[in-house]
Backbone:
């Protein structure tokens, strides 16, 4: 089965809806989180991305 790679903006630690969205999108196994910017604080964003198993070169300090 081919999975769709997706990225997420926001939804870092303390953001309730980010975790809900990640859980929902994993339910059918059709998508996999590959990139993100999870917080305005670049270090928090990178730390959370690492917790989620995202490679460092796909973790961004802002949405741009």
Residues:
């Amino acid at each position: 089965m081919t999975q769709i790679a997706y990225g997420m903006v926001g939804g870092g630690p303390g953001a309730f809806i980010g975790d809900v969205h990640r859980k929902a999108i994993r339910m059918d196994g059709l998508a996999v989180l590959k990139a993100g910017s999870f917080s305005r604080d670049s270090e928090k964003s990178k730390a959370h991305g690492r917790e989620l198993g995202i490679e460092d070169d796909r973790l961004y300090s802002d949405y741009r």
About this structure: Helices lie at 16-26, 42-51.
